[in-house]
Fold this sequence. Notes:
A: mainly alpha, ABC transporter involved in vitamin B12 uptake, BtuC, 12 helices, about 0% strand, globular, B: ABC transporter involved in vitamin B12 uptake, BtuC
Amino acid sequence: xxxxxxxxxxxxxxxxxxxxxxxxxxxxxxxxxxxxxxxxxxxxxxxxxxxxxxxxxxxxxxxxxxxxxxxxxxxxxxxxxxxxxxxxxxxxxxxxxxxxxxxxxxxxxxxxxxxxxxxxxxxxxxxxxxxxxxxxxxxxxxxxxxxxxxxxxxxxxxxxxxxxxxxxxxxxxxxxxxxxxxxxxxxxxxxxxxxxxxxxxxxxxxxxxxxxxxxxxxxxxxxxxxxxxxxxxxxxxxxxxxxxxxxxxxxxxxxxxxxxxxxxxxxxxxxxxxxxxxxxxxxxxxxxxxxxxxxxxxxxxxxxxxxxx
Amino acid sequence: xxxxxxxxxxxxxxxxxxxxxxxxxxxxxxxxxxxxxxxxxxxxxxxxxxxxxxxxxxxxxxxxxxxxxxxxxxxxxxxxxxxxxxxxxxxxxxxxxxxxxxxxxxxxxxxxxxxxxxxxxxxxxxxxxxxxxxxxxxxxxxxxxxxxxxxxxxxxxxxxxxxxxxxxxxxxxxxxxxxxxxxxxxxxxxxxxxxxxxxxxxxxxxxxxxxxxxxxxxxxxxxxxxxxxxxxxxxxxxxxxxxxxxxxxxxxxxxxxxxxxxxxxxxxxxxxxxxxxxxxxxxxxxxxxxxxxxxxxxxxxxxxxxxxxxxxxxxxxxxxxxxxxxxxxxxxxxxxxxxx
Amino acid sequence: xxxxxxxxxxxxxxxxxxxxxxxxxxxxxxxxxxxxxxxxxxxxxxxxxxxxxxxxxxxxxxxxxxxxxxxxxxxxxxxxxxxxxxxxxxxxxxxxxxxxxxxxxxxxxxxxxxxxxxxxxxxxxxxxxxxxxxxxxxxxxxxxxxxxxxxxxxxxxxxxxxxxxxxxxxxxxxxxxxxxxxxxxxxxxxxxxxxxxxxxxxxxxxxxxxxxxxxxxxxxxxxxxxxxxxxxxxxxxxxxxxxxxxxxxxxxxxxxxxxxxxxxxxxxxxxxxxxxxxxxxxxxxxxxxxxxxxxxxxxxxxxxxxxxxxxxxxxxxxxxxxxxxxxxxxxxxxxxxxxxxxxxxxxxxxxxxxxxxxxxxxxxxxxxxxxxxxxxxxxxxxxxxxxxxxxxxxxxxxxxxxxxxxxxxxxxxxxxxxxxxxxxxxxxxxxxxxxxxxxxxxxxxxxxxxxxxxxxxxxxxxxxxxxxxxxxxxxxxxxxxxxxxxxxxxxxxxxxxxxxxxxxxxxxxxxxx
Lengths: 309, 340, 513
């Protein structure tokens, strides 16, 4: 039954490609709920990937890689938040600069550490851990439940974040800051701190996503390996309407769009490889155009606070 | 006074960047002095370095910098110069290859006009989404960058791949399509003059014309522009967006007809992003973009020399460019707070 | 013997170069309603913000219950039992009413959940006691101004403050709602709490306060028991005895301004030849951004030489009416005839009237750059525009360092003078003014109202004044309309008393005797 195998492989690839997007996008959801749009997410992703590689080599294991990757992502987000939240610089341009700097700096560190010869780096990988019973479900079982631990972390995180946003005082304050920071401040919420830590949280998840890319996907680090996933993740947040659960679903949907490139031959599609690479970006554009009108962003998204400084 | 404090911010931002850059080199185990000397040698150290490397490198930076400056002045956050540049490069290469037998007086301008149109077309999609559907342009322009890069990759692997079908690049465009060399014996080409011309047009246009004022108004205060009842904001935004895309496309066309004479994968090392640093450091002023473009051209020219002679990875230069952006933003913010 | 609940002593606070407070003092007794009066810019809001812990004084100290405290944040003030209700609403539109109440009442237990049920119970009990009933599940966007004000006060009361501080709570309320609010404040005071109330309307303060403090230019110039003062004394204290020499009366500006366009002379003559219609609206419907009808079947005819006042509680379609009349908004249906030259003084001068980072000349150009006089081909004649801006600056007494000064560097009053000057210099046949004196001081307010009247009566333009300030309408307007839920109703001249119009603003039926 080659068709079934192809479908299983496709689903498996969809989850595998969707998870880094989901992690980064769920983090960005929290960030954006606080009124900050972090275009520097791509910088956190690539820093997470390099951190993952360096950590795995230094500490000697994928777990250490994930930890260092998370730190790397958090550090980049701190730089972004220091400027955009602390000083109130324009979020869009600051984020673009942080992405540019993140890609450049990781590239430089990589070249300095491993040279430019192009011999691929081999990293300890994050193994798949099948979950008993669940992974035995036909077709979807192995796709969803025979995955690396970061994937399960993502599954669990989505409902946790949902609860956090809608059902806790912290979440209420987070939403208030993103909607109407003046009102939140009047109610005693520390706006800048909230925005700063929401941004750092987003960067941390993006860092884990980057480390996942390097350790669970590629088994190596290459320059610019984040390949715009940070930007797609930001679009995924919009499609998921700033709701962590919907964001997870949207990310998995995008994972399947990317998975098409690997399955094209199996399905007998003769579309050139490069155009397949462009497909997720085009799909994101289309989805934005068709969807955005119906959803509502946090009212103070991308607006600096305090307003006149 | 305002001009002066803007200049002070730019100078201080460069200073701060220099200090951090030198510090990071030192931490990385490189000798900042050796690296700095190599960078200077490679960029401004000799006539050849200036004319054949720095000024040639500066052309795409000045042109995309102007595209970004124009857009930002009107409040259009066009982060898509990179993709628009690729669209322009593809179009110019296509014209240069397919009409190879046409005379030079026709072919070069035709290639550049094709680049302008392609850049505008590339910008048209996010522009339409912004003006018609009310979708912020930031994410769409970034997404279009990736589409542009992959489209160029597809073109040089597929329909326009060189005859032997080995390398991912096109055949060279015909001699007739190439821009003339300005100074005999160097690589400096007429594209530099085109860049200056675009700069002058934008400077005068923004300052003196009716439309330029409308564009600045929409950028300075969208609400006041709308409520004044005198400005059709959407039309202004659309024209600015498309013009910005066209200028970025032109940068790609100039690169093809003036420097590489062929399209290949990875043509741009990220000029469309560096352009943001170029434009911001210039205070979004078209006149100053020429200077900051030259400065960054020197930086990129020197990066190669630095890698050869001091072993500093060239990618480090993008990190330096990012620092320039951050410090200019921070400086502006602090300047405002103190009301200067 | 009343006990001193809180005391501010020798408070000085700067904002940049501006001294907002200058050794100000205030003593609040428990059980009293303490009114604070002052012109705009006198420092009232700053003083209250210091009480509320939002702003910290440069010099001076605060005593609560006899001991000195430093309020580092809004939270610290709440803990001391001081509850501040801001001038601007501090409700979060994206949240429900209940969530907003929860936001105001933090740290009641562990923070990993929302105590919505408890808060709901408590709020409805408190609501019954005070008459403050609010719809808990509604989202803030759906609610009117009165509801929002009630939620604000309920939010503050839920924290059980000993000192309730209210900054201009009446600005958005209709007369009957103000009465209700005042009754509530009286009850609170009788419970032994203290209420500090800021208003810039004298009569309101006089009707409720036990004691009054007057601020002028950041100083406390007077504190007195209500019985010892009257309107004259307080006005004098607010404006200062030297006010009469402060600013010379404004001379009519229009005649001296350079004429714009060729037809203006003929226009002026035309205008003097009796009353004619300058604008006509019939059956106008306009959709609001939320989808409902913001204006419903609105009909209005503006005659030359008159000021029409449109009164109403905020958010009843005023915005849309202003935009339609000034030709800046499409209508869904109906007939609209407006002249070519419409001047517009928008409510939010900072955002909509001016571009903050443009200089005076550029801001003048914003409205005039299409005038053929200032264009030659595709180019703008900046020299002429600059001269025109200088003319406006001197005629309308815009205090600035010159025409190259940025709009953001001007004070609120001077910004408004610039906007008014610019709009009048367009020689409008019709002028729309939307809350044109909000936030302005005494002299600037008088100036703007005078200019509106002059425009109508001297040059026979039609003026529509849309204002939530009923006193302003009554002072300036020749004919009065009330706008309520998107419907415009004329006020019969036999019933244009304050009370009658106030009732109409709330939707009560007029009782015709």
